[in-house]
Amino acid sequence: MQELKTKVVEYSPSTVKALVLEHFHITAEVKSLPGYVDLNFLLTDTLGKRFILKIANADEPLAELDMQNSVMNYLNGQDLRPYLLPEVIKNLSGNEITPLQDKYGRPRPMRLLRYVPGVFYCDHKALSGHHHSQLGSLLGRLDLSLQGFSHSAASRHFDWDLKHAKAVIESKVGLICDQSQREQVLKILSGFEQQVIPFMAELPQGVIHNDVNDYNLLLSSASPDAEVIGLIDFGDMVHSHQINELAIACAYAILGVDSPLAIIEAITLAYHQQRPLNGAELWVLLPLIAARLAVSVCNSSEAILSEPDNEYLLVTAKPAWAAISTLLKLDAKSIGFGLQRLCLTANEGATLSGPLDQSADNAASARHKDILSQRSERLFKTLSVSYQQPLIIERGQGQFLLDENNIAYLDMVNNVCHVGHCHPSVVAAGQAQMAKLNTNTRYLNDNILDYSQTLLDTFPESLSVVMFVNSGSEANELAMRLMRCKTQSDELLVVDGAYHGNTNKAIEISPYKFNGPGGEGAAEHIHIVPVPDPYRGPYKGMSVETGLAYAEPVQQVIGRLQREGKQLGGYICESLQGVGGNLVMPNGYLDAVYQAVRAAGGVCIADEVQVGFGRVGTHWWGFETQGVVPDIVTLGKPIGNGHPMAAVVTTKEIATAFVTGMEYFNTFGGNPVSCAIGKAVLDTINAENLMQNARDTGDYMRMRLVKLQEKFDIIGDVRGLGLFIGVELVKDENLTPATQEAQALIEWFKSRNILLSLDGPYKNVLKIKPPMVFNKDNVDYFIEQLLQGLSRISA
User: Fold this and answer.
1) 282 neighbors 341 (Cβ within 8 angstroms)
2) Is 3's pLDDT higher than 50?
3) Calpha distance 295→290 (Å, rounded)
4) Rounded to a whole number, what is the largest CA-CA distance in the chain?
């Protein structure tokens, strides 16, 4: 490069005309153009050829200008046809950068580029999916080519680099004056922290254009059938995550539209077909798009504070704010899942990380075999795995589980991670308390008091005492001790097919276990009563009459015990039958049973381990749907969103009867960390209105399932409350279980990235009990795949 010239120049069109003649020997007409950083001029020579002259800002480093020239030279040497890019024109001295100074003595390097003709993307009035796909193809081709390019200046720190979005937003969000808008940006930041940052190490990097906006993208004409033909302005180039290229382009493409998802899908699919995206890239795309918009409005807010009278700044920020409002109505995780599925199904025979690589496939298979082998050697052989080809699951987010390749699976069976896998509020509560204190309940601490009160507030008034334990099995075992202390009896009524846990006592009261493989049958003091099954049982329907009919055998067993001179201890029943087939009891059943049990001096125990905490949608607890109040309630599974904890809630009378002189102490039950996590779960259910979501989404799912039932005879029954739903499959009017067909469906769902399992005595019931953040879009995908699966079975 030449040394800086010492003469002072002004940059009017006439001055520029002279500079062009002096340094390039081109006689041209000069027209000023708008520019964000550079001074830009359109030149037209005597033959009608056009050029762009750029005079850089005084603060722009020469290395970055050299990088821009280098990348244009590099790309023009690649086969990017039919796309056009600016070409760098050397001056008469053979240099690409001509050093100048302004009147203040500051350097103002000058460059000349060949003009790229076309219509700006933003000026085209009839953009369609065709153009969005072409944009995606251009981006994919561009980034694929740029994988071979490097430059030292690309490693600069740049606020517009989405790698730094968190820091930029945090430093500037306070400049947003409107509180509701500030909260929107903070919500984007939270999504970025949860759904992008954990995956950053798995996002491929390279030099990217970093600013494919609607003023840098060119179409061949203004007609509807115009083609995307060119890209200009490489001033924002940076070495970053390549997926940021796609996110930025999508952020601009959706400005001013009401339905952005179709545009994002079209651009993404076309990009993927040129440069295959991996699972992590597709998972983080939507929160990255939102982050780009958030960075934009943060920077606009900063500019508005320095120029409060500049109406232009306010006007240009409006489309970004509108797009933010639209994006925040979408579930980013469901969109990430949808984008993965879109690209997977579009590339049959290809994986999300590129064309099918046999060695990679073999490596994955080898890892599966190695894990299974080690499990077999080190763990009990009674520990089962799901699916013919088990999954390696490494992450959980919301209603999704992600495998070792970050491919998401829609989790429709996990009622443990109740408010969503790895919910950030629950995780934060546990981390904060774990870093502060964890000890047993013999020391005084507010956590157990705060949590116990919050939990008890969800129960009827008479259920006012709680004891914390570590699992549902342990809770049910403690319930048996409470029953004996209150009644001095172990005589227990249990519902056929019920499951209450895995300890000795819990197995003793679980017909599903003691009458199942390896079981030893019922103990003398355990009395089985029929399962109140309104579909498969002898009494049909949900009426009170049906409920009373199923309650009659309970009364008969009680009468027999009384004739034998035996005191009844109690009756235990899941508020909705889980392993029994996701059954909802007929109306009036529990009311009649409870009256009979209490009349005989027994206690009524409700097992809410699977169905509590608002899953039924209308109430906090399943027993409330029957209009009854138990004497003892056992809680587990969802109580800690995956953290091992459980509880027993009872009356003061029964709690007092438990005071026999023997201390009940539980090393971990009620510890500060568990209580902090448990309270965060309750707070999240309320804050995110998850009971309402369970009701609305569950009603919608059952409606869609009933419509399918009209088309497929194999769907014998659709039942459930809220997000606790069972779909029983049968072969004929005799209700012959369609067990093999059900198992085939489970494998089909897995191939379509849906996780489901079976329950019921014949393993023919699809058990649907997803995390409570499950939404109607998830329902639609499930129904679509169920339709395809049933059609395959029918064929």
Assistant:
1) no
2) no
3) 9
4) 118
CB 759 within 8 A of CB 767: yes
Is the pLDDT at 362 greater than 90? The verdict is: no
Cβ atoms of 133 and 38 closer than 8 Å: no
Angle CA 129–135–140, to nearest 5: 125
Q: What is the 3-state secondary structure (H, E, C) of 155-203?
A: HCCCCCCHHHHHHHHHHHHHHCCCHHHHHHHHHHHHHHHHHCHHHHHHC
- pLDDT score of 5 more than 60: no
Rounded to whole angstroms, how far apart are CA atoms 320 and 257? 11
Distances (CA, A) of 131 to 141, 289, 320, 442, 508: 15, 19, 21, 68, 66
**Cα(334)–Cα(337) distance, integer angstroms:** 5
Tokens of 194: 């949860």
Nearest to 314 by CA among 322, 306, 304, 324: 304
**In this structure, are residues 243 and 205 in contact, taking their beta carbons and an 8 Å threshold?**
no
Q: pLDDT band at 788, cuts 50/70/90?
A: very high
CA angle in degrees (0–180, nearest 5) for 678-684-686: 110
Residue 366, pLDDT score: 86
Q: Are 272 and 278 in contact (CB under 8 A)?
A: no
Tens digit of each residue's pLDDT (9 = 90 or more) over 282-311: 999 999 999 999 999 999 998 888 888 777
Give DSSP secondary structure letters for 756-775: -EEETTTT-EEEE---TT--
Per-residue pLDDT of 606-661, as tens digits, reads: 999 999 999 999 999 999 999 999 999 999 999 999 999 999 999 999 999 999 99
Question: Above 70 in pLDDT, residue 130?
Answer: yes
